[in-house]
Write a structure and sequence with these properties.
single chain; four-stranded mixed beta sheet; Serine Threonine Protein Phosphatase 5, Tetratricopeptide repeat; alpha/beta; 11% strand; 4 domains; six-stranded mixed beta sheet
Length: 531
């Protein structure tokens, strides 16, 4: 097993409500049964108006759709009594309720006594805007991911049509859409054009009249080298606005169309200014721990792992809500399991404990028993347990780490290739001056570890020129120098070597292998003679 991570969220909320989807309640970290449908609807209504009195007339209208029976008041009092027992199980008889209180004309859910996920989402969205305003796209992305992970469906789902709730539902939906757009803008600021395209295509399809979303999609397509598609998006929004609303696109969209047509250099991606916040500086990513180049941050090479990051972020949100989570990511040797976990731990902002086993060492049965015991306690805690392992590990840890109820952990495979990653890597390689790209292409066929003399011989480049080119590749974060073997180098990530390898034709790979074998034989024979 490669990595084990335990994340302790540290939150200690007595009563917590989830309203970004069907209503849920948690008391002291445990999900509670909210009872019959009308009782659930009552609580959903009170949660939607937390801190504000809800009159009896409004409640009766919502629960019985304007036609309350003669027994409605009695039933309402029973629902309130049942909810109080559920929300304050330790309250002594005949003592005043502190969560669901009675008012002169109805009831109120005390906002100071509860935690509602709606407020946490709003806080994340505001923090994201502040990070955006100070040109910190890394923190913007983190806040948007954390906020959006809280959503499970329509806000205040059970009472979304109640007149006093409708404006709040509309406000939250608008804030959610704006947060999605802000997240995609952060991806663009980080140079992750392909990832932004994938998300914005789905977003615009679902929200075809969002002009800012169309603007972002058009820009991301243009930066991804798809100029014709970028113009199609702008033509589409113009047609929809004209036919459905009878209006023209904003001046901003009209100007974007002209700038794309003229291939305005100002539309090209530029690195964001260095963030000044301590957290942003601490979480700025790099390739294999090496500094990013001044021309392009190494975040692009990490784009293919954002899906894993998002799944982990959602699991953390569930753990914060008191539903402890167990996650078992896996990957082939060299697939890069550690980096997404470290990236996630940097983003999470909560205490993290690490434990690791060295590669090629079988996991001792005792270690698995310890993990299995820990896994059994996770569902009842506020912990997130992440156990990453190699796909070829034996035994498979995922089959051992199950909850007491038999529920299987969340599992996902970290594949070694993805289109956005490959394109980002190749773009980064192409930015290097020759002969560095040619040397790296030959090295990828030689293997993840390679001898500089052999590679330079095969590429017909003298060794001094080759070493200078390899220094450039090191500065770009694509390779590292082997500290144990003089003259040897290794790709900083298997993804880099694989992307280069896959773009070399099969016939050329075969010919290169023969030349590499011959060059290696010559180099090693010379070394033996001089040794």
């Amino acid at each position: 097993m490669k990595n084990t991570m335990v994340v302790e969220t540290g939150r200690r909320t007595t009563v917590e409500f989830h309203a970004l989807g069907p209503v849920e309640a948690m008391v002291s970290g445990r999900t509670v049964d909210l009872g019959a449908p009308k009782q659930r609807t009552l609580l959903a209504l009170l949660v939607s108006q937390a801190g504000r009195q809800v009159t009896t007339d409004v409640i009766l209208e919502a629960l019985w759709e304007g036609k309350p029976p003669p027994s409605a008041m009695t039933s309402l009092q029973v629902y309130v009594a049942n909810l109080r027992k559920v929300l304050e199980p330790g309250r002594a008889p005949r003592t005043q309720a502190t969560v669901l209180r009675t008012c002169a004309r109805g009831y109120v859910l005390d906002a100071d006594a509860v935690d509602v996920d709606v407020q946490r989402f709003i806080a994340h969205a505001e923090a994201g805007r502040q990070a955006r305003d100070r040109d910190d796209p890394h923190q913007t992305l983190h806040e948007c991911d954390a906020g959006l992970a809280l959503w499970r469906g329509q806000a205040h789902a059970e009472v979304s049509a109640v007149p006093c709730v409708v404006p709040e539902v509309a406000r939250l939906e608008e804030l959610r859409l704006s947060t999605v757009e802000m997240r995609c803008a952060a991806l663009l600021a980080l140079g992750a054009h392909e990832a932004a395209v994938a998300e914005l295509l789905a977003f615009v399809n679902a929200n075809p009249l969002r002009e800012y979303g169309c603007e972002l999609l058009s820009l991301s397509l243009y930066r991804a080298g798809r100029q014709a598609d970028a113009l199609d998006v702008l033509r589409g929004i113009q047609t929809r606005l004209s036919e459905e609303l009878g209006v023209d696109p904003t001046l901003r969209l009209q100007q974007l169309r002209q700038r794309i047509l003229h291939q305005d250099p100002a539309l090209d991606w530029r690195p964001a200014p260095a963030a000044t916040s301590p957290r942003a500086a601490a979480t700025s990513p790099s390739v294999a721990g090496t500094p990013s180049s001044a021309d392009e941050p190494a975040v692009e090479v990490f784009v293919g792992r954002e899906t894993a990051i998002r799944q982990l972020t959602e699991a953390l949100a569930a753990a914060e809500a008191g539903r402890g989570q167990l996650v078992t990511p896996s990957g082939e040797p060299g697939a890069g399991r550690t980096r997404p976990l470290r990236r996630f731990s940097e983003r999470s902002g909560v205490p993290v404990l690490w434990g690791t086993c060295a590669d090629r060492i079988a996991v001792p049965p005792l270690s698995l028993r310890v993990l299995a015991q820990l896994a059994r306690s996770v569902p009842e805690s506020r912990c997130l347990l992440i156990a990453a392992y190699r796909s070829d590990d034996a035994p498979n840890p995922a089959g051992t780490l199950t909850s007491p109820t038999g529920a299987q952990p969340l599992h996902f495979e970290l594949c070694t290739t993805s289109v956005p990653v490959r394109e980002a890597v190749l773009r980064r390689v192409r930015q290097l001056p020759q002969p560095a790209p040619e040397l790296l292409a030959v090295a990828a066929v030689a293997g993840r570890h390679f001898d500089a003399e052999v590679v330079s011989d095969v590429a017909s480049i003298d060794i001094d020129t080759a070493l200078a080119a390899l220094d450039q590749a090191i500065a770009a974060g694509l390779i590292d120098e082997d500290e144990q073997r003089l003259g040897w180098f290794r790709f900083s990530d298997a993804l880099v070597a694989e992307a280069l390898y896959e773009t070399t034709g099969r016939m050329r790979r075969g010919r290169l292998r023969l030349r590499i074998e011959a060059a290696a034989g010559r180099a090693w024979a010379t070394a033996a003679d001089t040794g």
